[in-house]
Amino acid sequence: MLRISKLSDYAIVLLSEIAREQGGQGVTARHLAASTHIALPTVVKLLKLLKDHGVLLSIQGRNGGYRLAHRPSDTNLAVIIEAVEGPIALTECMNEELDCQIHHNCNTKAHWVHINAAFRQALSVVNLNDLTRGTMPVRVSWNGDRAPAL
Amino acid sequence: MLRISKLSDYAIVLLSEIAREQGGQGVTARHLAASTHIALPTVVKLLKLLKDHGVLLSIQGRNGGYRLAHRPSDTNLAVIIEAVEGPIALTECMNEELDCQIHHNCNTKAHWVHINAAFRQALSVVNLNDLTRGTMPVRVSWNGDRAPAL
DNA sequence: TAAAATGGGACCAATTCAGTCCTGTATTGG
DNA sequence: CCAATACAGGACTGAATTGGTCCCATTTTA
Ligand code: FES
Ligand code: FES
Question: What pLDDT sits at residue A11?
Fold first, then answer.
């Protein structure tokens, strides 16, 4: 079916909520669980992931919580998804150092590199501001031409 | 990790091989299994899927086999992947009729529709000819502007 | 110093995915 | 005409991934 994981979706919801509520100090996992109706253990797990990948900052101890590590406009969907799911690599061939030899005469890899980049681009253009404020980036344009043979 | 399934990858390999070998008449599953080193039952399963979705034509009986249903230039990655994995729908919200209410005030759906389209676009521009002949479409361009709020 | 919060793992259940197997039908060369 | 070859269709299994839970340690502060 080719979809992002449910966890990534949750992460987007959580971050949107943090961006919306953030009033100087952190937002707690408990509070987020209540306001998003995502189970607390799951919320905790996700916030930790996002913190480990530099999307969130954490404040320990009583009155602790989480805050965005960067401005909402600098936190985009590509970053969020990569934090939760790992690097976006649509095929085996992409991010492995093992010399993938699935295809005979591999004309394929170059295409995947390109598709991967286009996809990541589409994701990276949408940021937290867009999600909370309802702004929207313009569309990708495609000139329709074809390049000459490799 | 966000990757296409192994089956989709196999399908691409199989179709490339068919496009390459196709000399008027069909190519058999047995032959494809031998030439691609993909296990026969798996090959059979995939060819059936591709046939059901109109990517391949089948000829039954002795001397039977499979042929491309359309010209190689009309068989693109989006079609192939959708045949094997079902429609490309990156989020729950996309292809379901159930009124997905994951997000509070959903500013999200509009973005996913857009990302989905951009992704499918990137896939659909690469066709079987490109894969077998080594030609390559040009890149997606992005003007960097942002549209006004919704 | 107790309560409230994150930190870090291990762990389990459910689903999805990859792959196999079996039985049936169509076609055709000999 | 019939046996061999190939596709048709589905049931089934094992493996891998994902989604989700649980437990206990550490940090901070009212
Ligand atoms: S061998 Fe991996 S993309 Fe070709
Ligand atoms: S409720 Fe599904 S995209 Fe917002």
Answer: 94
A6, B93 in Cβ contact below 8 A? no
DSSP A73-116: GG-BHHHHHHHHH-S--SSHHHH-SS----SSS--SHHHHHHHH
Q: Whose CA is nearest to atom 3 of ligand 1?
A: A109
pTM, two decimals, is 0.87
Nearest partner of A111 among B81, B73, B138, B14, judged by Cα: B138
Query: Are A108 and B131 within 8 A, CB to CB?
Result: yes
Query: Average pLDDT, stretch B36-57?
Result: 95
Model confidence at B144, in pLDDT bands (50, 70, 90)?
very low
Do B9 and A92 make contact, defined as CB atoms within 8 angstroms? yes
Query: Both tokens of residue B81?
Result: 């992947």
Residue A118's pLDDT is what?
Answer: 85
Q: Which of A56, A61, A74, A60 is nearest to A17 (CA)?
A: A56
pLDDT tens per residue, range A120-129: 988 898 899 8
Per-residue pLDDT band at B45 (split at 50, 70, 90): very high
Contact in structure between B43 and B71 (CB atoms under 8 Å): no
Name the residue closest to C4, CA to C1'. Answer: A62
- The answer to whether the CB of B55 falls within 8 A of the CB of B45 is no
Sequence length of chain B is 150
The DSSP secondary-structure symbol of B23 reads B
DSSP H or E segment with residue A136: strand A136-137
Q: Say whether the CB atom of B1 is under 7 angstroms from strand C.
A: no
Instruction: Express each pLDDT in A74-106 by its tens digit.
Output: 999 999 999 999 988 888 767 655 555 555 556
Domains delineated in chain B: 6-87+128-132 (1.10.10.10)
